[in-house]
């Protein structure tokens, strides 16, 4: 096949035309592509230009992710201070009407302008208390166009908002340095001027200027150094409530002062010397564990280490007590055992009861509890429950009799049921105690004492009763009827059974 020269020229022309159209399309796509860009505004920074400070010697060592090289510890053994840096969004400066008008009139060729303010916070803290803060505010401008790339071409950068925040963070670091070092200089002058040396002077300083000062740990160390050579532990115990005091003590003294008030090593030693049984102290320790979810931050044995516990054991505290001086939560079984005081086996060793034993600890083996058991110790229904079931009392009380207590038919029905009069009058008197049939039922049954006499087990609280009955007898064929009858004497049992596990 042959091609003429004219055909070749036409083919090339078509190719150039197609390429031209593609280029025009790309240009139009670019020109009609909207975007949003961000730009940090250095002029919005609230602090003055830095330059006054380079480094500063400080009375602490630094912990935390932020470890600036311009804070130089005066000693490697100085107290540890946490350095943190956070950024908070203060919000937009508000709706910009003029910018929005230009944006709408030009169909977004002129981008909409917005300004969002932030606050960068540099903080030094010790034992959870803030000692010093530097706050610097700044703004990041944003430019938005729906159809055109003008924000990117003329007003912003290719960075997103997070990247511009990083630019701002780097820019204001030196501002923080000047602010922090200037504040530390001022606190140093206050500390040197106060120069607290006696216990009273140190206490006064800690309550006044030293309350929020990086020299607060130094003042606490001075207080520790005043400890006498005799009765040293007693001196430290007397000052242990000073915030941060225990944390700066040598480990041999810390061991005695960590824990909840009354259950610290020093407290246990005193109580044992006075004759308190170690098991009583162990029960108190277990029951003192904070009822809170997540990590326990304070209030128990936070900070107690193995070395601390070894110190207490070597000093003569019982191992069973010392081993429970931990921030680990005690098991549910151990707590249940502590509640009943059944913590040890025949050999004197601490033991955790089985689930069956724990269940049996819920029930009393007598009829002196607040709530009588519908099952006897032989695992059969008590006589009064059988009588109620046979007379269909659960259904009767819940319907016609409950609605028309005292009606003649109801009275006659009750007269045929032994113990039911006392059953109704003694337990749900608040509901139907004033009904005309109550006295007839009590007279026919022989009274509340007859009901109590037919029960040989009881419970101190309704939740123990519900849990025990459900776990022990919930699978039996007569459980439903027994509970319907028992609920007539203890109406609150219904809700307790629903929540029992």
Provide the descriptors you would attach to this structure in a database record:
five-stranded mixed β-sheet, membrane, Carboxyl-terminal protease-like protein, 3 domains, transmembrane helix, two-stranded parallel sheet, flat, disordered N terminus, transmembrane, alpha/beta
Low-confidence parts, pLDDT < 50 over ≥5 residues?
A: 1-9, 16-33, 293-297, 393-446
Overall average pLDDT? 76
Q: Into which percent range does the helicity of residues fall?
A: 40-55%
Strand order of the largest sheet: 1-7-6-5-3
What is the count of DSSP helices, taking H or I runs of 4+ residues?
Answer: 25
Q: How many strands, which pairing sense, and closed or not: the largest β-sheet? A: 5 strands, mixed
By DSSP, the count of extended strands is 9
SSE class: alpha/beta
Oligomer: single chain
Number of domains: 3
Percent of residues in beta strands: 5-15%
Overall radius of gyration: 40 Å
Distance between the termini: 92 Å
Give the overall form.
flat
């Amino acid at each position: 096949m042959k091609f003429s020269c004219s055909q070749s020229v036409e083919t090339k022309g078509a190719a150039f035309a197609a390429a031209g159209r593609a280029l025009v399309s790309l240009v139009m796509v670019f020109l009609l592509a909207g975007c949003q860009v961000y730009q940090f505004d250095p002029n919005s920074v609230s602090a003055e230009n830095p330059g006054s400070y380079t480094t500063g010697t400080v009375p602490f060592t630094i912990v935390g992710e932020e470890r600036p090289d311009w804070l130089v510890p005066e000693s490697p053994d100085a107290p540890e201070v946490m350095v943190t840096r956070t950024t908070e969004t203060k919000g937009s400066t508000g709706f910009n009407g003029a910018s929005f008008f230009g944006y709408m009139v030009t169909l977004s060729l002129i981008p909409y302008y917005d300004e969002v303010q932030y606050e960068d916070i540099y903080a030094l803290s010790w034992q959870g208390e803030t000692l010093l803060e530097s706050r610097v505010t700044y703004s990041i401008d944003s430019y938005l166009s729906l159809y055109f790339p003008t924000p990117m071409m003329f007003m912003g950068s290719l960075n997103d908002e997070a990247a511009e925040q990083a630019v701002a963070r780097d820019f204001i670091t030196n501002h923080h340095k000047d602010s922090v070092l200037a504040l530390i200089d001022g606190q140093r002058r206050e500390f040197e001027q106060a120069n607290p040396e006696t216990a009273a002077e140190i206490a006064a300083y800690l309550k006044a200027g030293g309350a929020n000062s990086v020299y607060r740990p130094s003042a606490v160390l001075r207080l520790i150094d005043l400890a006498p050579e005799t009765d040293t532990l007693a001196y430290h115990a007397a000052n242990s409530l000073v915030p941060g005091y225990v944390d700066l003590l040598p480990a041999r003294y810390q061991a005695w002062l960590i824990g909840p008030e009354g259950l610290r090593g020093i407290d246990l030693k005193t109580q044992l010397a006075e004759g308190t049984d170690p098991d009583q102290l162990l029960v108190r320790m277990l029951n003192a564990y904070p009822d809170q979810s997540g990590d326990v931050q304070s209030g128990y044995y936070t900070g107690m280490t193995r070395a601390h516990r070894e110190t207490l054991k070597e000093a003569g505290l019982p191992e069973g007590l010392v081993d429970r001086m931990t921030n680990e939560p005690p098991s549910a079984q151990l707590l249940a055992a502590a509640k009943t005081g059944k913590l040890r086996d025949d050999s004197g060793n601490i033991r955790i009861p089985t689930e069956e034993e724990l269940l049996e600890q819920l029930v009393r083996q007598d009829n002196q509890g607040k709530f009588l058991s519908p099952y006897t110790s032989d695992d059969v229904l008590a006589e009064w429950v059988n009588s109620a079931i046979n007379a269909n009392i659960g259904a009767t009380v819940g319907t016609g009799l409950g609605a028309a207590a005292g009606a003649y038919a109801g009275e006659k029905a009750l007269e045929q049921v032994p113990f039911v009069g006392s059953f109704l009058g003694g337990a749900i008197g608040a509901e139907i105690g004033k009904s005309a049939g109550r006295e007839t039922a009590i007279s026919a049954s022989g009274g509340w004492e007859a009901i109590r006499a037919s029960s040989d087990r009881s419970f101190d609280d309704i939740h123990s009763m519900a849990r025990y009955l459900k776990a022990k007898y919930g699978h039996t064929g007569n459980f439903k009827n027994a509970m319907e009858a028992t609920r007539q004497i203890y109406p609150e049992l219904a809700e307790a059974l629903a929540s029992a596990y």
